[in-house]
Design brief:
Layout (H helix, E strand, L loop, with lengths): L2 H19 L3 H23 L2 H17 L10 H22 L8 H6 L2 H19 L3 H12 L4 H8 L3 H22 L4 H10 L4
Protein name: Sigma-70 family RNA polymerase sigma factor
Organism: Pinibacter soli
Family: Belongs to the sigma-70 factor family. ECF subfamily.
Length: 203
């Protein structure tokens, strides 16, 4: 897109945002039509399921409509849209992971995870555990207490008899090492692995 076209597009979006903030439904419909494909593609990257991606895309725009009064404060709508969609997608994935340790236990979870997706997430989960085994002893302990047992940094510091700052340091090192490990061993599903790593909270 040329610079002049970008400027015109930005002006059009800003005008729509002002109209939407006033509750103008047609303006909202125009905004949805303008950005639907982008958000949907983003969702498909995460969940790899058309139906779920479609539902999540609807949720993203519903969230924007619900908080439309705030749109007048938005300087860069593309950045705002990305943040809203990312947060909803990660929240959805966290709920999936929290559901019986990635095992489908209900009819709903079975529709949420197709068999091949279940296998992929199990493989990624197993890969992360192997990566944890490769960490230094202190990084392992911090990661397991924080991400698998759900302890706060304060609780970890008390348990390990170290400072909270040291806990943060070892957690940062552990997460960075695991990102590198996932990248080296599973580049095909790197994004899904990183999201799983972010959301992981049980062993």
């Amino acid at each position: 897109m040329a610079e002049d076209e970008k400027k015109i597009h930005s002006q059009e979006v800003n005008l729509l945002l002002l109209q939407i903030a006033d509750g103008h439904q047609p303006a909202f419909n125009s905004l949805v039509a303008m950005h639907w494909k982008r958000v949907f593609s983003h969702a498909m990257t995460y969940v790899q399921c058309y139906t779920i991606a479609e539902e999540l895309t609807q949720d993203v725009f519903l969230k924007i409509w619900q908080y439309r009064e705030k749109l007048t404060e938005i300087l860069h709508f593309d950045d705002y849209l990305f943040i809203v969609s990312r947060n909803l997608l990660i929240s959805a994935i966290r709920k999936k992971i929290d559901s019986a340790s990635i095992e489908p236990s209900t009819e709903h979870s079975e529709t949420l995870w197709l068999p091949d997706q279940q296998m992929e997430m199990k493989e990624l989960h197993s890969l992360i555990l192997k990566g944890v085994d490769a960490l230094s002893p202190q990084q392992q302990q911090v990661f397991k207490l924080g991400k698998m047992e759900g302890l706060s940094y304060d609780q970890i510091a008390e348990s390990m008899q170290i400072t909270k700052r040291t806990v943060r340091f070892h957690m940062a090192l552990a997460l960075n090492s695991l990102r590198i490990y996932i990248h080296q061993h599973n580049t095909k599903h790197l994004l899904a692995g990183l999201v799983l790593l972010l959301c992981l909270n049980k062993g």
